Amino acid sequence: MSDDAATTAPAGAGPDPLAGPDGAEGAPRRSAAARAAARLGSGAVQLLLVLIALFWLVPTLGLFVSSLRAPADNASSGWWTVLARPAELTLENYAGLLDNPTFVGSFWNTVLITVPSTLLIVAIAALAGYAFAWMEFPGRDWLFLGVVGLLVVPIQVALVPIAQLYGGAGIYGSIVGVVLFHVGFGLPFAIFLLRNFFAAIPRDLLEAARMDGGRELTIFRRVILPLGGPAIASLTIFQFLWVWNDLLVALVFADAANQPMTKALQAEMRQFGANIDVISSGAFISMVVPLVVFFAFQRYFVQGVMAGAVK
Amino acid sequence: MAHTPQPPDADGGAGTVPGPADPGPPGPDGTRTDEQEPGRAGALGPPSWLALAFLLPALLFLGAYMLYPIGFSVYRSLWDAPGTTFVGIDNYIRMFTNPPTFVALRNNVVWVVVAPIVVTVAGLIFAVLTERIRWATAFKLVVFMPMAVSFLASGVIFRLVYEQDPERGLANAVITTVQDTVAPAGDYPDASPRDGSGVEPADGGGFRLGAEVTPGDEPAMVPLVGIAADDLPGAAEPARAPEAPAGDAVAGTVWLDFTPGGGGTEGAVDPEERGLPGVGVRLVDADGATAATTETADDGTFAFEGVAGGAYTVELDPRDFSEPYAGVTWLGPTVVTPAIIGAYLWVWAGFAMVLIAAGLSAIPRDALEAARVDGATEWQVFRRVTVPLLSPVLMVVFVTLMIYVLKIFDLVFVIAPGSVQADANVLAVEMWRVAFGANDQGLGSALAVFLLVLVVPAMVFQIRRFRRENS
């Protein structure tokens, strides 16, 4: 029964959250007429869902096809005209992008921002999550409630104060500043997610390890991290995509030399019509990594997003 | 080992995901048996100072990036733009009186009222509809996909969709195609009357002859100009003036009164001029009622026969002269916010759908079956059983969306073109614009503090839910 699976399996290793109940319809006995009506209705539902799915797919397809058309073609006709004339597709826009040092640089900046931020968030949150779940100290529960409260604090509150702080410290505009900001704002959710998962690890396992005289750091490494794998995977993928896709933090804290792709593309948006070749191909490249990560690890990502409900 | 670790959402205890057993009765299989109280480490537990060592990096970051900024923003919001003069609550007063900020505030209200409802309802519909189809996983994957890509990319996607020109923008291409099928554009949108010919524009975009006609009169001549010769339908033949009509008939010609290359007489049918085929002609009597209708022939002639005596006006059907429909100005000042909410729906529907679907799969089948056995229709089951059982999940989805919508930035910033940014403005965009564009960090801080105050109810909701579920 999928119900049971949903309540007992560990996060990440659990059932695919996108997969529904596996055909468990449990329909009661019905008359032939009712069955016929149900089949007709189901046909209508299928048709409706196909239309909805098209509504979700076609805009993305439009971006992709536009990125493969010469600027002049994009200016004169819609991307769907390629259905009639497929020969006009070209890789020119992508070639142009690779020759564009600003864009290539911004791609590497995105990587340089995303990877360290994600690793730092996961490492720091894992330590804190373990402390909140399995170590005793005065005020623990209150402190954790504080973290829960911080989940919803808007980023806007920190922009002005941190900009001033960075100005004083001389890291305004640098990649380090952007990374540290992401770590600060990623932590409440990360701690929340990992603490809840760690707290659910069977206590006998920890007791046994402590009984054997294991030191905390050893227990953390040998017991918690391996068992927490799925939750850590969810968090890693969620944070990776979150930082990769960020625009606002980069807009404020990254200067032109250190800007990630999102900010570089945003600057092109001012002349949307004239820059459509750069924008469409650049936007598509910026989407490729998230899409690959999403399709490869969708179960973990979806679970991370679901855990973020009421963030 | 006998146990697998519980996920945060496993027993509803963690409170992130509305666990299946969360609000309702405990699961039939009693999954809560291995409930435990974490952290009671007992005598074997480590000393407090070690816990603090584990927590230290996190506390430093939270202090520097969240607590300190909250305090500093409140303080900074009481000072003027350069930060040299204390102004009290002036920045907060300006926030509500300053026109651009006020527009932002108003739009934020629209966003918060409309977007979460639209997205939650869409998510509910998708979740219910996909329950019974085989390709539900594929469908959910497709609808959830926008969650993985940046708002910037989604914004670019919708800038393309919303292009004004129906030749390039998908939304208007679809709309104009539908519109042209329902009410096709006229063949002669550019036509205008020949000056001094007595033809005048009529209400609704058509034309009429200024002089009245009676049956048996001279033919009613309707010369039009302004149409490019290339735009004439292929069927158009050289125009011809009809013979004098019989005593109970009205006849005439509608033609393009223009001789290519010059020459010809204005208001008269010349040899090289062509008739306008297919124009609807109406004979309107003195009371304004339509007495008869017909269409012009390929040479532009028309005739009404068996007309009762009296004075009539000859009118040309406006539909033949209507402009082609140009589509909706999606990114114009009036509908830009609804248009961006459309893009928002596209991004977030998958989120609502997945959470609600998880809640749906946890509804006890017996409850639904019992209702069906009692003779309830599917709609009644949905309305009276499914939705009430789902309401805690719907609430979580709704509140989550509200928090995100309050802080919406990227989509508005990216989709609204520069010229309508002011009309599409929201608080988060205004905060960025004020603090980093106009360099007024006093007002910027006030806006940030205001945003923080707006999410405080959500913060309280969150903490209370967490405490309730952990008690």
Automatic annotation (TrEMBL), chain A:
This is Carbohydrate ABC transporter permease. The chain crosses the membrane at residues 37-58, 107-130, 142-163, 169-194, 223-244, 278-297. Residues 107-297 form the ABC transmembrane type-1 domain. It is a multi-pass membrane protein. It comes from the Bacteria. It is found in: Cell membrane. Residues 1-27 are annotated as: Disordered. Belongs to the binding-protein-dependent transport system permease family. It holds the Pfam family BPD_transp_1. InterPro entries: MetI-like, MetI-like_sf. It comes from Nocardiopsis endophytica. Keywords: Cell membrane, Membrane, Transmembrane, Transmembrane helix, Transport.
UniProtKB/TrEMBL annotation, chain B:
It is found in: Cell membrane; Secreted. CDD domains: TM_PBP2. Signal peptide: none annotated. It comes from Nocardiopsis endophytica. InterPro entries: MetI-like, MetI-like_sf, Sdr_B, UgpAE/MalFG_permease. It comes from the Bacteria. The chain crosses the membrane at residues 49-68, 109-129, 141-162, 343-364, 385-406, 442-461. This is Sugar ABC transporter permease. Residues 1-42, 184-205 are annotated as: Disordered. SUPFAM superfamilies: Cna protein B-type domain (SSF49478), MetI-like (SSF161098).
